[in-house]
Specification:
The structure is a homodimer. Chain A has 2 domains: 63 residues, Arc Repressor Mutant, subunit A, CATH 1.10.10; 182 residues, 3-Layer(aba) Sandwich (Chorismate lyase), CATH 3.40.1410. Helix content of chain A is 31%, strand content 32%. Chain A is built from 10 helices and 10 strands. In chain A, the strands form 3 sheets. In chain A, strands 4-5-6-9-8-7 form a 6-stranded antiparallel beta sheet. A two-stranded antiparallel sheet of chain A has the order 1-2. In chain A, strands 3-10 form a two-stranded parallel ribbon. In chain A, helix 4 packs parallel to helix 9. The model of chain A has no long low-confidence stretch (mean pLDDT 92). At the A-B interface, helix 3, helix 4, strand 7, strand 8 and strand 10 of A face helix 3, helix 4, strand 7, strand 8 and strand 10 of B. Strand 10 of chain A pairs antiparallel with strand 7 of chain B. Chain A binds a DNA duplex through helix 3.
Chain lengths: 267, 267
DNA sequence: GAGTGGTCTAGACCACTGT
DNA sequence: CAGTGGTCTAGACCACTCC
């Protein structure tokens, strides 16, 4: 019954299914054999199958919902070149609307065209929690504009990123256009929006960390609960050293590469 | 028996244990009640307890090994300021050994002193796999020097980072000192080592992604299997546009913040 | 040696999928 | 509708930790 080789049995389940996927025996988008079938085939209990499959789900090879388990299509890794992207966005802020409308930031460092992209935006008002208050150096409870974005490929509805962006309400209210979600996607993005109220961004600080995806995030990003997300906290600081925007960017960790180039002074 | 409120029962298990930890009822380092006890207390089966606890393990609140489950001490987030750190390392490369010996890179962006740190290094020879070959633009099979590092706090033995660094063997062999692991930790680090063979680094490209920790990584980093790691692929390019070093840096995702500052040109 | 978590078994019900 | 995965139960053995 037990052919122990030192490794748990579910490891063999995971390995063999993985190999079958990579070899092409199980095709992307296709259904996985049922857990009961797999249990029979590998001679383990349903629990063993589930334990094995969990790892494959976390790594993005397979997916499951109630009623079906399936092989995930290998997803292209998206590269985001932030050190160049931010300067590029700044350069565009003073261009005409026509020029700005031509391409969005996602197209800048992706091969994707804006016609391939599905964009979603939602605005709301909130009161600054203690963390936001600290980051913006404003009193707790200050009125903030919260903007929630998600960008997806038009094909599969998996989002490439989920963004929660915050601005001080009274600062952006100077230009009522900026409170109107109907104007999204705003040509040129946030730096262009800030330009309309006389704000010049001096520098952007990105803080990166990682953690397991929460259930809501997993749904939107097209990954499984327990898979990893990259969390990017982005702070924009203007030429007077004031924090003018803060955003939390959630990226599917396994399918994203955020790239920073540090140029060093020559000797 | 079933008091269904729409959420699975294990969610309540996770939530209540979490709250008890945050409230201080369960103290860091202390033992968790046994799974059997928890099953009794919450009126769920052992499986339910395990499902609930799994989430807490992935988020780093609790840990477990065979024979005991315990509350993890809240760990300090380590901030690594790479955009400044790399320039600082370059500046040090031409300093005297005395100056370089004074502090290491980890101390640069941490409050930790080198006396608090435990450093481990191991050198080996490998043949370039296809990925390394591509990154260095050398033939597959080229002799490489592989250097594996880990740095930990002296207190808890959890590593702050695990690094696999690669160099082209014949390039660094110019200075036999660089093949000698006994010289680690080398004052000033890699850029100082490269300086001894006449290499000036022009720029460093960091690519960041995230994925669940593998069992080996989890052990070294003091996190649980299934917790997230930040993966940082670092490429150093010299003034002749040649890749001179490549390394894979594995960081505990929940306890690390990698920081990049992008300075923008003024209008 | 007692007790624990890691692994495993053999069932069950229900919400959901696809047809 | 049949079949599937999500959740759950009630047990078991073993390697390991702690005392």
């Amino acid at each position: 019954m037990t052919e122990r080789d030192g490794r748990p049995r579910y490891a063999r389940v995971a390995q063999e299914i993985r190999e079958e996927i990579l070899a092409g025996g199980l095709r992307p988008g296709g259904l996985l054999p049922s857990e009961a079938d797999l249990a029979d085939r590998f001679g383990v209990s349903p629990t063993g199958v589930r334990n094995g499959i969990r790892r494959l789900r976390e790594r993005g090879l397979v997916g499951a919902e109630q009623g079906r388990g399936f092989v995930r299509a290998p997803r292209q890794r998206l590269r985001r070149h932030h050190s160049e992207r931010y300067q590029w966005e700044k350069d565009r802020a003073r261009q005409t609307a026509e020029v700005r409308a031509r391409t969005g930031a996602t197209e800048f460092d992706t091969d994707l065209q804006s016609t391939d992209l599905k964009f979603h935006a939602e605005y709301s008002e909130t009161a600054a929690c203690s963390e936001l208050a600290m980051r913006f150096d404003v009193p707790v409870g200050t009125r903030m504009l919260q903007r929630d974005y998600s960008t997806s490929c038009r094909e599969d509805d998996a989002a490439l990123s989920v963004v929660h962006s915050y601005l001080v309400y009274d600062v952006v209210a100077t230009n009522p256009e900026l409170l109107d979600v109907a104007r999204e996607p705003y040509p040129g993005g946030t730096q262009s929006q800030l330009f309309t109220i006389g704000i010049e961004v001096d520098r952007i600080v990105d803080e990166l960390s990682a953690r397991p995806a929460l259930p809501e995030e997993a749904g939107v990003l097209g990954i499984e609960v327990g898979a990893s997300v990259l969390v990017l906290n982005k702070t924009s600081i203007d030429v007077t050293d004031r924090v003018v925007e803060y955003s939390e960017v959630i990226l599917p960790g396994e399918w994203t590469e955020v790239v920073y180039t540090t140029e060093l002074k020559r000797w």
